Amino acid sequence: MSNILATPSRDAVRVGAALALLIGGAVVSAPTAEAASSGRVCMVNAPRGAYGAGHAAFMIKDRARTNHWLYGSFGSQNDAPMAGWIRGGTWEQARSHFKKVRDQDHLNRQYYKQYRCVNTADADLRAAQSWYSTVKNRGYNVHTNNCLHATIAAFKGYSGKLRHDKRLPSATNKPPNDYFAKVLTSAGWERKHDL
Q1: Which of 68, 71, 140, 179 has its CA 20 to 30 A from that of 41?
Q2: Per-residue pLDDT tens for 9-27?
Q3: 115 membership: H or E segment, kind and range
Q4: Contacts with 8 (C-beta within 8 Å, 6 or more apart), sequence order
Q5: Alpha helices in 28-140 (DSSP H)
Q6: Considering the entire predicted model, what is its pTM?
């Protein structure tokens, strides 16, 4: 009879190897909507928006309800200088909504393409809505009050941690594509994911 302690079973070796890979970071899994028990925000990006400067939108997790998110955007239309919208729904509904938006100026292709998320230690959904509404009610201005301003306002209203994060500067005169690619990277947000 062999010593059980001296000869590990094949299953034990496999489990040990899997744990080593997980601990070492070699295994990367796709993000899940419910990954955080605290707060979570995601910026959605439409790279071809605003003549190639990009367009930003948001998804914000409701901690009080299972799999419920607030999502929306802000923009300008010729007849509606305060055009903006907010909806609520599941993670799947939020992502599906953004995937379905078509780009009328570019052969009806998918408009929103990608998103990036970050978890937060705190979360106040009502404050996020209030901060978003404040920006929206000021009226659209391409340099000083645009889609990126509304998205960042929603994030900073939602989380004091994000509000005080020096790595998330003002959106003024920053193209949404640059903010999405460079600022969020410097701020430690998750890698981008396709919708």
Answers
A1: 140
A2: 444 434 344 333 333 433 3
A3: strand 114-120
A4: 16
A5: 49-52, 91-100, 125-137
A6: 0.77
CA distance 22 to 44: 28
Long-range contacts, 76-84 (Cβ 8 Å, 24+): 76/140, 76/142, 76/146, 81/139, 81/140, 82/136, 82/137, 82/139, 82/140, 83/140, 84/132, 84/136, 84/150
- Within 8 A by CB and 6+ apart from 119, the residues are 35, 36, 38, 39, 40
Of the candidates 182, 191, 177, the one whose C-alpha atom is nearest the C-alpha of residue 168 is 182
Length of the chain in terms of residues written = 195
Query: Which residue ranges in the chain fall short of pLDDT 70?
Result: 1-37, 76-82, 103-108
Among 177, 163, 145, which Cα is nearest to 47's?
Answer: 177
Distance CA 155, CA 163 (A): 8
